[in-house]
Write a structure and sequence with these properties.
Keywords: ATP-binding, Magnesium, Metal-binding, Nucleotide-binding
GO biological process, one term: tetrahydrofolate interconversion
EC number: 6.3.3.2
Radius of gyration: 19 Å
CATH superfamily: NagB/RpiA/CoA transferase-like
Largest sheet: 7 strands, mixed
Protein name: 5-formyltetrahydrofolate cyclo-ligase
Strand order of the largest sheet: 3-2-1-6-9-11-12
Number of domains: 1
Helix content: 25-40%
Low-confidence stretches: 1-6
CATH architecture: 3-Layer(aba) Sandwich
Order of helices and strands: HHHEHEEEEEEEHEEEEH
Cofactor: Mg(2+)
C-alpha cells in the first residue's frame, strides 16, 4: 500500500476530517433552508403522523425509561409535545405507578459538547434558557438535585433523538455541537460497564430530512441511530431495531 493511501498519516487524517466537516456545513445550510420554507400545514401533518406512529408502537409502549428531546419550533424540530405529554401522564386513579414511564430530558452545560439528562415528572419542571429552549434546572423547586440519567440505577430503554438530516444506513447529521454524539457514546459505555441492554436510538424525521445514502458524511465520533420514524412509518436499521421492533 502506498503512503498516500495510508490512513494512519496524521496530515491525511486531518485533511479528510476537514473535508467531511466542510461537507457537513454545506449540507446543514441546505437542510436549514429547506426546513425554513417547509409548508406549515405539511409540517403540522407530519408532526402529528410521526407522534401517532411512535405512540402506537409496541416498542414505545413497552419502554419504561426514556430520554427524549424537548422540541423547539425555532429550530424546526419534529414536535414531541404529544409524546412528552403521554410519557408524563398522571398515574391511574388507584395509585398504580408501575405503568408510568420515567422521562429524562437534555440540558446543555457548556459550549464544549457537554450535555446532561435529568429526570422530570412534569412539563412545569422546565425553564427557558438564554436561547429560549426549554431545559430542566439541575435542582427542583424545593432545592433537591434532580436525578441524572448517568447516575440512575436502572437502564434507559429508548432515546428519541432530533437531527437535521438522516439516511437509511443510520447516519445522523446534527447541528454541529457534538452534544448528542458525545452523550450517546458515554451512555453506551456506561451500559456496557453495567452489563445493561443497550437502549434503542430512534430519530424523528420529517420526510424531507431523509437523504440518499452517501450524502451524509461521517467521522468515527458520529453515533449512528438504530431506527428512523418518518410520516411514512418506522425505518429499522440496526440488528437491535430489527429484533426489538419486530420487523
Amino acid at each position: 500500500m502506498s503512503q498516500s493511501n495510508d490512513s494512519s498519516n496524521p496530515e491525511e487524517k486531518e485533511h479528510d476530517l476537514e473535508s467531511i466537516f466542510q461537507q457537513k456545513r454545506i449540507l446543514r445550510s441546505q437542510v436549514r433552508k429547506t426546513l425554513k420554507f417547509m409548508d406549515p400545514s405539511l409540517r403540522s401533518h407530519e408532526d402529528n403522523a410521526i407522534q401517532k406512529i411512535v405512540l402506537e408502537a409496541p416498542w414505545f409502549k413497552s419502554s419504561q425509561r426514556l430520554c427524549a428531546y424537548i422540541s423547539c419550533s425555532a429550530l424546526r424540530e419534529v414536535d414531541t409535545s404529544k409524546l412528552l405529554s403521554q410519557i408524563l401522564q398522571i398515574p391511574n386513579a388507584d395509585g398504580d405507578t408501575k405503568t408510568r414511564k420515567k422521562l429524562y430530558v437534555p440540558r446543555v452545560e457548556d459550549k464544549n459538547s457537554h450535555m446532561r439528562m435529568f429526570h422530570i415528572s412534569s412539563i412545569d419542571d422546565l425553564i427557558a434558557n438564554s436561547m429560549n429552549i426549554l431545559e430542566p434546572a439541575p435542582v427542583d423547586a424545593d432545592g433537591n438535585e434532580r436525578e441524572d440519567v448517568m447516575q440512575a440505577n436502572e437502564p434507559v430503554d429508548l432515546f428519541l433523538l432530533p437531527g437535521l438530516a438522516f439516511d437509511r444506513s443510520g447516519r445522523r447529521l446534527g447541528r454541529g455541537g457534538g452534544y448528542y454524539d458525545t452523550f450517546l457514546k458515554k451512555y453506551q459505555e456506561l451500559a456496557k460497564e453495567r452489563n445493561w441492554r443497550q437502549p434503542l436510538f430512534v430519530a424523528l424525521s420529517y420526510s424531507l430530512q431523509i437523504m440518499d445514502e452517501g450524502i451524509i458524511s461521517a467521522t468515527p465520533k458520529d453515533m449512528p441511530v438504530d431506527a428512523l420514524v418518518s410520516p411514512s412509518g418506522v425505518i429499522p436499521i440496526s440488528a437491535a431495531a430489527l429484533d426489538r421492533m419486530q420487523f
